[in-house]
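Holo model, zinc ion. Inputs:
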Amino acid sequence: MAGSCDPPSPAPLKLYWIDPSCDEAAGGDFETLHVLEARHWAKRAYERLCSDTDTDFARVFNLIFKTPKTDTKFFPRPDNWQEVHGDHLDQWQTSSQHVLAVLYDFAHNWARTDNRQEADVRIYAGARGLSRWQPLLAGLDGSGNTHFDPINCLVASGVDRDNLQAFTAYFSTPTPVDENEHPLRGTIDLGPGAWAVPEPPQISVTSLSTLDPALLLSENNQDGAPVTITHLSRSLVTRLLLHEFMHVHGYLLDDSHDYDNEDGTAGWWFCMRRWKGEAAVCAEPVAMLGLWAALADMRPAGMARGGFTVERGWDEIPGGWEDVHPDGRDDDEAEEEGMKWDEDWMDGGNSALKGELRFYEDITN
Ligand SMILES: [Zn+2]
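Output:
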């Protein structure tokens, strides 16, 4: 990974603006609880990836991105980026180069502004935030499911789906836009579903700052069963916000290259199904890596050292999908041929695949 951790050349600061609906939905200071926390996760993930001695975090990277951080294979840019900027089919960056660049930029190159129009990203929350979206007249776009935001002059689809968790908009309305508006602006909406209280054994916590790390120890879980990243990640608004930031201008990461979206777009299982190259240009794997970096910094009271990471019982990372199926990535074909990725790695007893959390004293900070 030589050179990847050299300090990047200075980039202009990007600005975010926070609508009052965010503090209301968060029941506190949204910026501290979620924006600054998400940026801290990115900072810690960057630092851990750049460390030559943090072999555990290198293992977590390998698990999520299906490739060692030292891999030199280059991959194309995200599809969303190409949709906005035109086709660039060149092999662009390695998995670790891309992930490091995105993490560093998100951690270091943003600041808050009170001037909405100059903001690169405007964040809204809850039903109050969503209320600004207006349906486009049916037939105008053919689908009847496109909305526009008259304040930020953006269009988006899927705004009115049930129990909306979150979405990002960055396509401008075709009508003339106020000249004071940032030309490459976007919005993040965290819908009412983002704060939905999950059923046990899910842990209901929206920010890690309010979590007692002792709750992550298996012995404190229901039936003493291992706590998994899924128990924790679903309710974390900070993880969701980090995911959504990965979609805005500057990153334009994808949700998935599985256009049937059969896996959804979030969660640990979703991450485990992303193949090498794809994982590094998708939003959720980056958000999940940030979460693991934050967990590695967490210790139950009374513990002098250590942190949480993925269970190590299954320590053989299988490599990318293409390593076992070089000519394609057809699920049925692979299953028929009994590829090792399915037979061994996807086995139900695989604790890493389940995202089981364990506390290890040798995790360094
Ligand atoms: Zn997404």
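The CA atoms of residues 4 and 36 lie 24 Å apart. The chain has a mean pLDDT of 87.
Archived with the compound record.
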